Amino acid sequence: MDSIGDIRRDIYGVTPTSTQEDEERWTPLRRRVRLIMLLHASETAGLAPIGIVQLHSLAYLSNVLAPVWELRPLDGKVMKRRGGPFYPVLQHDLDRLISRGLVSITNLGYRRDDDGRWRLEGSFYLNYQFADPIVKRYYEVENHMAAFIEELAYAFSALSEQDLQSVVSKDATYADELTAFGNVVDFGEWRTLNYSANAANYFRRLLPGGALPTLGEKLHLYARHLHWRLHGTRTK
Amino acid sequence: MEQEPSDLDLGSWKAEDLALTAQTYAGIGTDASLPEDIRFLSRSAKLIQERKVVDNKRSDPKQPAVFLLAPSRRGEIWKTAIRVPMLDNGLSRLNGWIWLVSAAVNSGYGLELTFQDDNCLFAFVTGPLNLGDVPTVIYDPRGPSPKIRYYPYGLREPDKCVIYPTEGEKVTDEKIFSVIESVYQQCLKTPDAQSRAGRLWAKAERCWPSSNAEAVVQLNLKAGLAGQFLTCIIREEQTTPEGRTDLEIEENDLDRGVIIRHSLIELKILRSFHEGGSVFPHSETLDRIRSGVLQAYAYGTQKGARLATLCCFDMRQTDEKECCFDDVRELARSKQVVLKRWYIYSSSDLYRKAMSGQ
Fold it and tell me: Which of A24, A130, B14, B259 is deepest in the core (most CB within 10 A)?
C-alpha cells in the first residue's frame, strides 16, 4: 500500500522533506482529513448531524482507543475540562471546512463555554458533493484507519445523544483522578500509559469460552462498558 | 526508577467489572469486517431473536417490523421519528415500526406504522420515505411460522426477496458445505468471479497465487456463512493452545444461555508456486494437508466443535481432483475430520474448457 508520503508525491508533485519539516507541513492536512473521516463515520453510524460536544468526544475516543487497532493517536493529549474534551485546533479546522463548503451546519446557536468564551453551537454533517472524493481516496490509502474510525462510530452509536455527550467523563483515562481538571490528560505524548486502550484490550482475557475478541468487538465492548459506568446497568 | 507502563494497568477500573460486560455483550462487533449489507441482515436477525426472548409472553402485536439500512436522516418526515439507543438489547417493541438503522443495528430511528396493509407499507417506503432502494429486512410475525424477508435491492424490487426462518437456519454439515460451494461458485472459482479488492492470484496467467490468498478465501467464506446462518457468530483467527483456528461457527443459544460450537473450518491453499514464481514442492503440499487434518482435529476437540473440517482451495497448475487426499484419508477418518476441496481456475477459459471436457 502507498504511504501518505507517496500519495502526496503523486497528488501534489512534492518531494520528501526532513521529518520535522514534513510534520509541520502535513499535520494540519492530516488533522482535517481525520475530521472529515469522523464526520463521515458519524453519518454511516447514524449519528449525523453530530453535535459539537459529541464530535469532540468522538475525536478524543479516536485518539485514546487508536492503540487498540495498533494505530498511533493523532493527538496523544488533551486538556481535562469539566465539559468534556475540546480540541481548539479541531474547532478551527471545522470552521475552515464549513467556510469551504465541505461541512454543513444545522441547529445553529451560540453557547458560553467553561472558560466564559462564546462558542458556535450546532450540529454538523458532511457535504458529500465536495467531500466524497476525499472520503473515497482515504479508504483507498488509509483503509485500516478508516475502518477503525468507522467501527468506533458504530460502537458509540449504540448510546443516546446525551450519553455520547457525557460518556468521556467516565473514560478510564480521562476520568483518572490523578489528573485534575485544567491539567493535561496525556496518553501518547510524553507518557504511554493508556488505561482506556488497556481496558479494551483486556477483554481478550474475558470472553466466554476463551474466545478472542476481534478488534471491532473490543471497541463495542468498551462502549458498552462506558454505558454501564454511566448508568450502572447492563441492559441485556 | 520509574516502572515501565504495563498494558494490564487498568487504573481505577476493576477486571471483574469488565468481565461482566464481556459476558453480557460478547459477540457484538465481531461482524465488523463483513460487507455492510450482510452485517445489516445478520444484526437485524439477531435483534429479532433477542426481542423474541425478551417478549416471552408473545405480547407484541402481529404486525411487521421493517428495518431500512439508511442511517442518515434527512427531510421532514423523520422529524417525528424517535431515536432508540441500545436497540439491540431487545427491550424495545419492534413490531409495528419502521426502523432506520446502520449496519450495526445497535440504535435506530423509529417511525410507528399507521397502516396494516402491506401494499400501503411498500408504497410508503418507496414513496414518501423515498427509501425504496436501500437493503430492507421485514420481520413478518403473521402466519403459522414467522419469517424474515430480506430485500437486498430494497422494496422497489419486491421480487428479489430471500426468506429466512426467524429462529435461524439450522446449521447442518450439508448446509455449511453448500454455502461454501456457493461462495466458491460466485466469488472464487475464476479470476473473473473474484472482486477487485480480493484477488487470489498474483499472476493468474502463470498460476502464481497471491501470498494472502488464504486471507481472501477466509473473508469470503466468513461473509457467506454470516449471510446464511444469521443467528450465528462467525469467528476467525482464534488462538488455542494448539494454534490458531481459521473459522468457527458458533451460536449463542439465548434460551439456554450456552454457546454452541457448530463447526471448525481449517483452510489450506494448495499451490504449485509461491507468489514470486518459485516452485512450491509437491511434498510440502502433502505435508500441509496432513498438518491441516491434525490441526482441524486438535482445534475441533479443544473447542468442542460438532464438525471439524479441512477445506482445501486448490490453486495448483493442474486439477488432480481428490488425489491430494489419498495419503490422509485414513487419518482423517480416524480423527473424524471431513475433507473437502475446491479447484480454483487461473482463467475463465480454463474453466470453460474443463466444463466442456477438453
Answer: B259
Q: Does residue A123 sit within a domain?
A: yes
- Quick one: angle between helices B15-25 and A195-202, nearest 10? 50
The C-alpha cell that represents A172 in the structure block: 478510564
Is the CB of A214 less than 8 angstroms away from the CB of B104? Answer: no
| Interface mutation target, options B12, B18, B109, chain A, most CBs of A under 10 Å | B18
- For residue range B206-241, list pLDDT tens digits in order: 999 999 999 999 999 999 999 999 999 999 887 766
- Contact between residue B285 and residue B271 where contact means Cβ atoms under 8 Å apart: yes
Count up the domains in chain A and report the number: 1
Q: Is B235 in CB contact (< 8 Å) with chain A? A: yes
B83 touching A (Cβ < 8 Å): yes
ipTM summary value: 0.88
Residue A63's domain comprises 4-231
- Residue from A105, A64, A47, A100 nearest A198 by CA: A64
Q: Is B126 within 8 Å of B151 (Cβ atoms)?
A: no
* Closest CA in chain B for residue A139: B197
The CA distance from A158 to the nearest CA of chain B, in Å, is 5
Q: How far apart are CA A125 and CA A98, in angstroms?
A: 10
Q: Of A89, A86, A77, A83, nearest to A30 (Cα)?
A: A89
CA A232 to chain centre: 25
B17-165 has which CATH code? Answer: 3.40.1700
Measured in degrees and rounded to the nearest 5, phi and psi for residue A86 equal -145, 125
Interface test with A, best of B42, B53, B102 (most A CBs within 10 A): B102
Kindly report whether the global pTM for this prediction surpasses the value 0.95.
no
